[in-house]
Amino acid sequence: TTNPNNKATDLYKDKLKDIEDELEKTNTSLIITEDNEHFQDQENEMPFKHCHRGELIQLFHQYCGKRFHAEMHGIHKNDWCVLKHIIRIYNNLTVCVELVTGLSDCYFPNTDVQDFFVYIHSTYFQNCTEIEELLKDAPTSLVVALTII
């Protein structure tokens, strides 16, 4: 059960402790790669899982998101689009979200994970664009010379 004042209950505190302990133990995660699409069959292969979506979403924001926001605000806003400044923080967020998803007995990835990352991206990375160098045309004399050859 949850507290009507939105304070952490003993169960919630235990869940947070489990997350913290698990994050401390591991620096790696079981991130699913593109070539492993086995995750799409999770619901059929593991029907016993009962995802606690409300708890999951709350943990995303109150635990993973809170840490991510604090670290991002420690970086100058102009550097939010510079990968070398945010890659470690973003990886920590990804690992945290994956861990929280598993501890909440939910499948990873899922729509709640997707929605959370869309929220993060719209908050911090919506103005990040890849700058492409425009290619200049070769000088006419070079084009003519190469065409003749």
Layout of strands and helices, then pairs:
Layout: H1 10-25, H2 42-45, H3 53-72, H4 83-103, H5 111-124, H6 140-148
Helix pairs in contact: 1-4, 3-4, 3-5
Family: Belongs to the RAMP family.
Membrane topology: Single-pass type I membrane protein
GO biological process, one term: cellular response to hormone stimulus
Provide a brief overview of the structure.
By secondary structure, the protein is mainly α. 56% of the residues lie in helices and 0% in strands.
Walk me through this protein's architecture.
- This protein is mainly α.
- It has one domain (10-148): Orthogonal Bundle (DNA polymerase, domain 1), CATH 1.10.150.
- The chain is 56% helix and 0% strand.
- It is elongated and about 80 Å long.
- The termini are far apart.
- The model has no long low-confidence stretch (mean pLDDT 79).
State Rg.
Answer: 22 Å
Q: What is the total number of structural domains?
A: 1
Structural class: mainly alpha
The succession of helices and strands, N to C, reads HHHHHH
* β-strand number: 0
Query: What is the 3D form?
Result: elongated
Give the DSSP E fraction (strand runs of 2 or more residues): under 5%
Rounded mean pLDDT is: 79
User: How many distinct helices?
Assistant: 6
Measured distance between first and last alpha carbons: 80 Å
CATH topology: DNA polymerase, domain 1
Name the CATH class: Mainly Alpha
The fourth-level CATH homologous superfamily is Receptor activity modifying family
CATH architecture: Orthogonal Bundle
